[in-house]
Structures are given as C-alpha cells and as structure tokens.
Amino acid sequence: MDIRYLEYILALAETGNMTKAAKKLYISQPTLSQFLTKQEAELGTPLFQRSSGTYTLTPVGNLYAEYARKIICLTKNLEKDIKRVSNTSRIRIGTSSSSSLQMLSYILADFRKYYPRVELVLSDDNIRSTSSLISRGELDLALVAANSLEQFKGQSIELKKEEVIFAAPSAHPYCQKLSGSRNRTLNNEQLLEQFYKYPFILQHKGSCIRYLVEDFFNKQDFNPTIACSTSHAQSICDMVSNNIGVGFIPSWNGISTDRITFFSLEPKIYRTHSIIYRKDLIMNPPHKFLIELAKKYVDTNWNNLFK
Q1: Hey, which residues does 91 pair with through a beta bridge?
Q2: What span, in angstroms and rounded, lies between the C-alpha atoms of 264 and 185?
Q3: Cβ–Cβ under 8 Å, residues 124 and 252
Q4: 3-class secondary structure for 184-238?
Q5: Are 161 and 270 in contact (CB under 8 A)?
Q6: Residue 2 has what pLDDT?
Q7: Is 169 in contact with 175 (CB distance < 8 Å)?
Q8: 165: which DSSP letter?
C-alpha cells in the first residue's frame, strides 16, 4: 500500500527544510517541491508557511500531519496482520515437557487430516526458554507445563493441573518404617527432618519443576546437596531406585515399584499444563482446531491419570 506521499509531508514537517527532507526521503528536491505544490492545489489551501527557506505547518498542515501519522500506523498494522493471516500455513509451536511433546505427537495425525497443507515448525525446550520465545514472538503458541501463568495473563489456556510428588529410595530408614502404610504424605518439616542429609537429584535449571522445588527450598531456607541435575524424570526415578538420592517428579512418572517410595506433599505442589500464545496472535481456524484437539486429548487421556 502506497503511503509514501503522506511520508513526504511528514518528512518536510520534521525537518522544516526542503533539501533535508528530500535527502531523508531519497528523492530529488524538485520532485518533493512539485508534489507539495500539487497537493496544496488539490486541497485548496497551503500546508506550510514559507519563511527564509524554513517550512512550518499551517493549522491545516497540522491536521493533515496528524491524520497522516494515523493512516501510516494503521496501514503498517494492516500489512502486518495480512502477512500473519497469509502465513497461517506455517505455525510455530513449542513444547516444554515430555508429556506436552507426547500429546502433540498424538494429535498431529488428526490435525493433518483437516489441515494437510499447514506446516508445524516444532521447538522443544524448558519452560524458561519456551516462555522467552513466546514473549519475543518467535513462537506462535506452545504446549507447556508451567510453574506459573502470571506472565501470560490473557495469553494462556489452562488444560490440567498435575501434582508433583517426592520420590525416595525404599531402602531409606524412614521409608522402611512406613512399609505397608497407605498414608504416605510428607509435610515440609518431615521432609527436611528425614531427608536433609540425603543428596537431591533435580531437574535442570529453567525447568518448571526446578522452579517449584527452588521456591520450596527458599521458603524453608534450605540449601540442599545436589547429586545430579537432569532433564528426564525417568532418570531421576532410576537414580532414586539405585539409592543415589531423592527427588521431585511429576505424578504421572510415579509408577509403582518396590524400590521407590512416593510421597504426596503437604501442602501439595502442582505444575499446570497449559497452552500459551504470543500476545498479537490472530487465532485462525488451524490454531483453534489445534487447541481443541489438545483439550480433547486432555479430557480423554489425562483426567484419570493426573490426580
């Protein structure tokens, strides 16, 4: 859309000089002068007062400049939105957890049936990096497990809360005492009293559960010994089962085994499975369908899994 002639008037208003304005616009001075003469003739009134080579907007010129700025802004926004709509054939989507990635892999088959020409560009990283990409507009939307959605008020859809549980080796003396007990809960004081000497196996920094665990430690003014950091909950379970340390895992990884004792925390800790999206995203049919598929997947597969 051609808005250059509006820019001619604004450049002359900003510089107040025909030569400087022409230079800024990368056009010749005669071209700019001829355009101004023609424009004023069409309007039937001068836009500038001339005095010793200095151009100053008249009242009509000020009004013209005001509307010119608005038109230029609206035109640029329109072009940007048209570009977004035309680019719906390519959706950039992120995931921040293994459960999110598993869900996306499952729903892609149904998505492709209805939108075979829409390309999904996938990115898998932790919640910190994924949130940053959404905020910078480098991802359109993301399926995430988040410690908090405060940053994305008005830009998020909550899917399901999942409890984070504590895993300890069944060989630990405290776990031995509870053998056969069905009430396996730990409050903050009990956890630290029984396990403060044990090394902790934690998720990498920047992950959702690591944020939750660090917040827990900070509130208890506790500085744990960290044996290992990993991005895989199953690796934490494997190391706990081998009596290397203790850790926090999402409840869906808490598969019954006689080598690990799982505890529900009191108060409980949750991570929130959600969809977050960039602030200026125009929700077109492919975006909406992808979101509906995610909701349906959660209702079908997670309602009985996450307690």
Answers
A1: 120
A2: 5
A3: no
A4: CEEEHHHHHHHHCCCCEEEECCCCHHHHHHHHHHHHCCCCCCEEEEECCHHHHHH
A5: yes
A6: 65
A7: yes
A8: E
Q: What count of other Cβ atoms lies within 10 Å of the Cβ of residue 299?
A: 11
| Two structure tokens written together for 233 | 């909950």
- Which residues touch 130 (CB under 8 Å, ≥6 apart)? 94, 95, 96, 123, 139, 142, 144, 276
Structure-token pair, residue 94: 């992120």
Residue burial 171-181, b: 16+ Cβ < 10 Å; e: rest: ebebbeeeeee
* pTM, full prediction: 0.67
- Cα separation, 87 vs 285, in Å, equals 13
- Grouping H, G, I as helix, E, B as strand and the rest as coil, residue 162 is strand
**Mean pLDDT across 53-78:** 92
DSSP 8-state symbol, 252: G
* Bridge partners, 120 (sequence order): 91
What beta strand segments (E) does 58-124 contain?
90-95, 119-124
* Residue whose structure tokens are 């950091």: 229
Which residues 6+ apart lie within 8 Å of 307 measured at CB?
A: 163, 251
Q: What is the pLDDT of residues 192-223, one digit of tens each?
A: 999 999 999 999 999 999 999 999 999 999 99
Average pLDDT over every residue of 111-137: 91
Helix axis angle, 29-43 relative to 4-15, nearest 10°?
100
Tokens 């999942």, located at residue: 162
* pLDDT grade for 304, boundaries at 50, 70 and 90: low
pLDDT-based confidence at residue 85 (cuts at 50, 70, 90) = low
Q: What is the DSSP letter of 9?
A: H
What is the three-class DSSP state of 48? strand
- Give the model's confidence band at 182: pLDDT under 50 very low, under 70 low, under 90 confident, else very high: low
Backbone angles phi, psi at 162, to 5 degrees: -130, 130
